[in-house]
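Example is below:
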Amino acid sequence: MDDGKCTRCGWCEAVCPYDAALVTKPFEGDIELIDTKLKAATRRLPWVFQCLPVKGVDNPPDKKIDVVRDFCTYCGACEKACHVKAIGVRRTKTKHTPVEDTPWAEDWKKAIACLTADDRGRPISRALCMWKKQKEAGAGNYEAGCQS
């Protein structure tokens, strides 16, 4: 197994005839199909699968789309790819290594908390300041432009 390419979906664990694979998924959560949005879709949704890193969504012949919860890692790629917004992914827990006590520990904790929050905004608290060159005759002048 190439650990760098593994998405932790559990497919290898399901198909291994020797029970040699054991996978820990990175997230726990729930994935749902939103029926009212699916009814608005005029055809099956096979294009959703082109961006997915795992086998968590299926395209059976009798439905437009279906969810395979056993292989879903709750990454959210299917939710982002679905143009009719018929898939909802909610993360309830994330599994990660312990955060060591470092100067960036609080920012790491905020970033990890954003993975399960409904609002996945920018968790970093520090402001980014860049110096911009003024476009005047005196081209050597600089001013600070800060963004938070």
About this structure: The chain is about 20% helix and 20% strand. The two ends are 41 Å apart (CA to CA). Residues 98 and 109 are 10 Å apart (CA to CA).
